[in-house]
Amino acid sequence: MTEVRHRYDCPLRWGDIDQLNHVNNVKYVDYLQEARGALLHACRAAAGVEHHHNDAYVVRRHEVTFRAPLRFRFQAVSIESWVSEIRTASFTLDHEIFEEQPDGTRTLYLRARTVLAPFVLATGQPRRLDEQERNALAPYAELGEVRSRPVLVDVPRDRAAHHAVQVRFSDLDIYRHVNNVKYFEFFQEARIASLGRLRQGLKEFPRIASVIAQADVEYVAPIVLRPQPYDCWSVVSHVGTKSMVLESEITDGTGGSGEGAVLARSKVVLVFFDTETQRSLTPVDGFREAMIDVLGDMVTA
Which residue windows are transmembrane per the record (predicted)? Predict the structure, then answer.
């Protein structure tokens, strides 16, 4: 069978841009959601299915690798998607977001992997993929040996920074769960709040920005709308010469007690970034040590 990748041209919005004049990292996941919906529609069309009676899927995991900054432009950005794995009760989509030149060369902005699981709409319980779904996915399959891996974190509550996550009505999807894209926003808000102390504590050093190189999110259980906030706990598990790793969990407890079941996990690699050269950099001597000192117990490395 000839390998086929689905291509989707995604328009950008001015509101997608962050303070570095790049597309904000959480917006890429929104783009992937649009491309995923277009791919699944194409799968149904190829199989001659108008709408599958069991056609309900939840995202179990995102693994997102950022390769280059994407700036705003009026032209759409291209997304190629394909099926990289089909298992008993899940399937995996791989994606590339890129710009293609007339000569065929590409600027790659992002690579990503998304694991989806089917479930029964009436009960909310997981189910197996049926033969019709497998046949629908087959035209876009490039099955390989590399598999998606669970996002494993270690977030000791007694050392973690706490951030309250308040769900808004607009965060919900058609299943009345918080949309998978919004989790990236929740973790971003917690990350900014947790690392906010660095600005004051490192004022003796030249200002250094950071960008995300890798962001992985594991969806453990649905987050739903409720008046009480959820808890997000974050620690810095590694501080290198040019990057740092932040591990986080969202739990269903309230009030920062440290209790409650884990609903989502995140591991993010932040790279120190020079806004003038638009490249990664190694901070000046003493910066790493000062940063660890400012963050205190939050650093578990």
Answer: none
